[in-house]
Design goal:
This protein is α/β, with parallel strands linked by helices. It contains six helices and four strands.
């Protein structure tokens, strides 16, 4: 996925909105999410059954260790996180929503009018 994004969007700045499920190895996932990223917005998804999100503040601290030059924000509400990404993006920037399908599931109004 990272190679595909780099091949097709290498000239565009990347803004990443990310939430991870508690069973994910954040220290393994974050380097890929941070690669070439201008801004990282960390959020949560709504708890669904057995799965809980990893605390966004913890992810922010870990991200700062991996990529100290990336602009990192924590916005707990996923809809507000998306709004912030859209507000801060330039017309040619690429916004990626990633990390967990549970996050995407919390944002149906972003995908459907």
């Amino acid at each position: 996925m990272c190679q595909l994004i780099e091949q097709n969007y290498h000239d565009q700045l990347k803004i990443v909105v990310l939430a991870l499920k508690s069973d994910k190895a954040a220290e393994d996932v974050l380097p890929f999410a941070l690669e070439g990223t201008k801004k990282l917005i960390l959020t949560h998804f709504v708890v669904k059954g057995l799965w809980e999100p990893i605390d966004a503040q913890y992810l922010a601290e870990l991200s700062k260790q991996i990529a100290p030059d990336v602009d990192i924000q924590v916005i707990a509400d996923p809809l507000k996180a998306i709004d912030q990404a859209v507000t801060q993006a330039a017309p040619d920037d690429l916004i990626l929503v990633t990390g967990s399908l549970y996050l995407v599931d919390d944002l149906p109004e972003c995908w459907y009018p």
